[in-house]
């Protein structure tokens, strides 16, 4: 028996692996180079759940097929959005789908190359493409607003590790042959790599800390310089524009744990820090201004820094 699953994966991997498919090859002159294979409805539902899609979102499906992802989000949550597909037949099916489900006021479908589509409106992007296409798209996706969620069916994003991942069985995959589906979620990280000058009141006095952050996608590490001491930060977490980290530094001769959390807005950060030690427990506001951006654009390789 011919297994459609194998046929599809075979096509995908052949396409993905072939040297002729360079980055951006989905920009096909002679039609789409990503074959049409619909995402099973149960997988669509999980993709929307993992992406936390709601009425407040604007969803763009890249290579939208019969429009099922955009239409399901609009019908279930009232989400607005659009889909693009190179194939005019798919656009017709997607428009019929939107009409049947009464969501034409919230969604639209355009016959358009996904590489020539403005993505700036999106709060959520969904895709079921190819590994190489995901990689070709990656630099543009990293430029989107921090916090934008990206949900991909079956294919990852190379060394940009997903923030969340799940595998599920889908009986109706590959026209009913069945198979496993992988779902990946990434949250576009703010750019935090570089030097920052942080200010906060400690024991009633204004303190200045120099923060140096290294960033690889959403992974952050770094140091804080307080006067002549250089301390490595721990537990750094970056989720969209939300940053948290901690370190222990002496205050008046006693070790004090500093737990920072806050938001990044371009070249400024601000938030709250909780300071706890034997002789102190305080919650203070902090702000930081960017002093210098990392020379390299994202992705920045995390360097092994020496702490003096
Ligand atoms: C695997 S299907 C996914 C369909 C739909 N997103 C889903 O999950 O059910 C990929 C779709 O991408 C479309 N496609 C391929 N290359 C494209 C491109 N460069 N621009 C827009 N659409 C493209 C194909 O026509 C096909 O409908």
List keywords for this structure.
308 residues; alpha+beta; Rossmann fold; Lipocalin; 2 domains; 9-stranded antiparallel sheet; 7-stranded mixed sheet; 6 helices; 20% helix; 41% strand; elongated; disordered N terminus; disordered C terminus; binds S-adenosylmethionine
SSE layout:
Blueprint: H1 4-17, H2 41-50, E1 58-62, H3 68-77, E2 80-85, H4 88-100, E3 107-111, E4 124-127, H5 131-142, E5 149-153, E6 164-170, H6 173-176, E7 179-187, E8 194-202, E9 205-216, E10 219-226, E11 229-232, E12 234-239, E13 242-251, E14 254-265, E15 268-277, E16 281-293
Explain this structure to me?
The chain has two domains: 13-187, Vaccinia Virus protein VP39 (Rossmann fold, 3-Layer(aba) Sandwich); 191-290, Lipocalin (Beta Barrel). The protein has a nine-stranded antiparallel β-sheet, with no helix packed on it. The protein has a seven-stranded mixed β-sheet with strand order 3-2-1-4-5-7-6, with helices on one face. The protein has helices at residues 4-17, 41-50, 68-77, 88-100, 131-142, 173-176, and strands at residues 58-62, 80-85, 107-111, 124-127, 149-153, 164-170, 179-187, 194-202, 205-216, 219-226, 229-232, 234-239, 242-251, 254-265, 268-277, 281-293. Helix 2 packs across helix 3 (68-77). It is 20% helix and 41% strand. It is elongated and about 70 Å long. With 308 residues, the chain is of the alpha+beta class. The chain has six helices and 16 strands. Residues 26-28, 32-34, 36-39, 61, 63-65, 68-69, 84-87, 90, 113-115, 128, 153 line the site of S-adenosylmethionine (SAM).
């Amino acid at each position: 028996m011919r297994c459609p699953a194998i046929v599809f994966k075979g096509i995908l991997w052949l396409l993905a692996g072939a040297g002729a498919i360079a980055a951006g090859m989905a920009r096909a002159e002679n039609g789409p180079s990503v074959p049409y294979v619909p995402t099973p409805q149960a997988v669509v539902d999980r993709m929307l759940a993992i992406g936390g899609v709601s009425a407040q979102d604007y969803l763009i499906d890249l290579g939208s097929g019969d429009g099922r992802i955009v239409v399901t989000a609009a019908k279930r949550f009232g989400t607005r959005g659009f889909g693009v597909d190179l194939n005019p037949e798919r656009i017709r099916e997607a428009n019929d789908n939107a009409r049947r489900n009464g969501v034409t006021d919230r969604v639209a479908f355009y016959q358009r190359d996904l590489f020539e589509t403005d993505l700036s409106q999106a709060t959520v992007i969904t895709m079921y493409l190819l590994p190489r296409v995901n990689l070709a798209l990656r630099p543009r996706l990293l430029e989107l607003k921090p916090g934008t969620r990206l949900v991909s069916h079956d294919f990852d994003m190379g060394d940009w590790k997903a923030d969340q991942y799940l595998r599920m069985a889908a009986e109706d995959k590959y026209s009913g042959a069945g198979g496993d589906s992988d779902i990946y979620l990434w949250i576009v990280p703010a750019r935090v790599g570089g030097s920052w000058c942080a200010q906060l009141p400690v024991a009633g006095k204004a303190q200045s800390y120099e923060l140096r952050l290294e960033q690889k996608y959403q992974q952050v590490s770094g140091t804080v310089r307080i006067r002549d001491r250089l301390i490595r930060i721990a537990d750094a977490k970056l989720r969209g524009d939300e940053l948290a980290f901690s370190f222990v530094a002496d205050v008046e001769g006693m070790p004090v744990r500093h737990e920072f959390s806050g938001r990044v807005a371009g070249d400024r950060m601000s938030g709250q820090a909780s300071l706890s030690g034997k002789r102190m427990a305080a919650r203070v506001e902090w702000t930081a201004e960017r002093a210098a951006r990392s020379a390299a654009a994202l992705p920045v390789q995390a360097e092994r820094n020496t702490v003096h």
